[in-house]
Design a protein that fits this description.
372 residues, Rossmann fold, binds uridine-diphosphate-N-acetylglucosamine, UDP_GlcNAc_Epimerase_2_dom, WecB-like, isomerase, UDP-N-acetylglucosamine 2-epimerase (Non-hydrolyzing), UDP-N-acetylglucosamine 2-epimerase activity
Length: 372
């Protein structure tokens, strides 16, 4: 059985690493990695390969930055050549980035089955590029691996054949648990001069929050206010940095006493910062899950979440109208020890990749050997 695993952007690496590792346990599986190059710098890509012990990709498509159409179409043209050469039995994609959709589309048109890991999540907000990527990828996938019950419900509502859906758990948590001893050993707060458990960790990069001056100004006001209470540690995504510069707000951010702006962090470093945060403020998808697992309070500055279990059972709060006063009021309650106590969702147990590989082996190897 030959599988091509697709990685492209930062959130893919920690999802594919445990799956590739699980495939590699079997001699009858050839597991190859295709990197589209959607993310290309050391800080957004290279460091994840080394920290997550992933081999050099078998193919690097070198696509880089561009508009959605340029990125998606560019990946499709290059990935088609790989498909012709490799003739895989399966293409495995994860998450909701442009690379996910582009490769799924190429595969399905060449009649290659597609497995989608982290299927069925829906924010209900079609203005998010990721939502379009999720819907389209699920609709062409043959095997849909879900992380939470809401995703099951969504797929059933969309009339997806139930035999295609598998509740496998969360591969992102597989990586977190696998590397937890190393994450715990680090002491990043000390190395950047903030006291553990007494700072707010912030990430912000969604187009709706950072692509316009108005959104960035709102974030600026929130940070100014929070930094009066606690240090704010902010690893800045390249997209956010570009837009701060375009909006002429970079200096204003830099001038906030108590705000520490950092380069994008490595996987282990970022999770060490998460582990020791008093509060995480984010608009990321994956960080909502990682904070729920680590039981760290998280405030998500978005109107919707495609990961409702993190709000319903976990430690996540959704701030639908990110108003400075609401954010600060809730933050104060959390600092005073009144954060909700979450529980860890079902099957977020470090074994999701093994479950995924065993479903796929059953379909592609065992049933073939038995002549079914
Ligand atoms: C992408 C994903 C988003 C994911 C995020 C994680 C889509 C539609 N979006 O958004 O779902 O949460 O990755 O990071 O796929 N850049 C660099 N260095 C890099 C990568 C990007 O400087 O290594 C710059 C690019 O030049 C570009 C900007 O960052 O101008 C945005 O990159 P892009 O991949 O288009 O989207 P993200 O905002 O990162």
């Amino acid at each position: 059985m030959k599988v091509l695993n697709i990685v492209g952007a930062r959130p893919n690496f920690m999802k594919i690493a445990p799956i590739h590792r699980a495939f590699m346990k079997y001699r009858d599986i050839s597991s190859k990695i295709v990197h589209t190059g959607q993310h290309y710098d050391t800080r957004m890509s290279g460091i994840f390969f080394s920290q997550l012990e992933m081999p050099e990709p078998d193919y690097f498509l070198g696509i880089g930055a561009g508009s959605h159409a340029q990125q998606t179409a560019g990946i499709m043209l290059e990935f088609e050549k790989v498909i012709y050469k490799e003739k895989p039995d399966l293409v495995l994609v994860a998450g909701d980035v442009n690379s996910t959709l582009a490769c799924a589309l190429v595969a399905v048109k060449e009649h290659i089955p597609v497995a989608h890991v982290e299927a069925g999540l829906r924010s209900g907000d079609r203005r998010m590029p990721e939502e379009i990527n999720r819907i389209m990828t699920d609709s062409v996938s043959d095997h849909l691996f879900v992380t939470e019950n809401a995703a099951l419900v969504n797929l059933k509502k969309e009339n997806v054949d139930e035999s295609k859906i598998h509740f496998s758990g969360n591969v992102m948590i597989d990586s977190l648990l696998y590397y937890f001893p190393e994450i715990r050993k680090l002491n990043i707060p000390e190395s950047i001069g903030v006291a553990p458990n007494a700072y707010v960790l912030m990430t912000m990069h969604r187009p709706a929050n950072v692509d316009g001056t108005e959104g960035l100004k709102q974030i600026l006001e929130i940070v100014k206010e929070l930094a009066l209470h606690k240090n704010v540690v902010f690893p800045v995504h390249p997209r956010t940095m570009q837009h701060m510069e375009i909006a002429g707000l970079k200096k204003e951010f830099e001038n906030i006493a108590g705000l520490k702006m950092l380069q994008p962090q490595g996987y282990l470093e970022f999770l060490n910062l998460t582990l020791h945060a008093a509060l995480v403020l984010t608009d990321s998808g994956g960080i909502q899950e990682e904070t729920t697992f680590l039981q760290i309070p998280c405030m998500t500055l978005r109107e919707t979440t495609e990961r409702p279990v993190t709000v319903e059972s976990g430690t996540n709060y959704l701030l639908s109208r990110p108003d400075r006063k609401d954010v600060v009021k809730l933050a104060e309650a959390i600092f005073a020890g009144n954060a909700k106590k979450g529980i860890i969702p079902a099957l977020w147990d470090g074994k999701a990749a093994e479950r995924i590989v065993s479903v796929l082996r059953e379909k592609y190897i065992n049933s073939y050997v038995c002549g079914n």
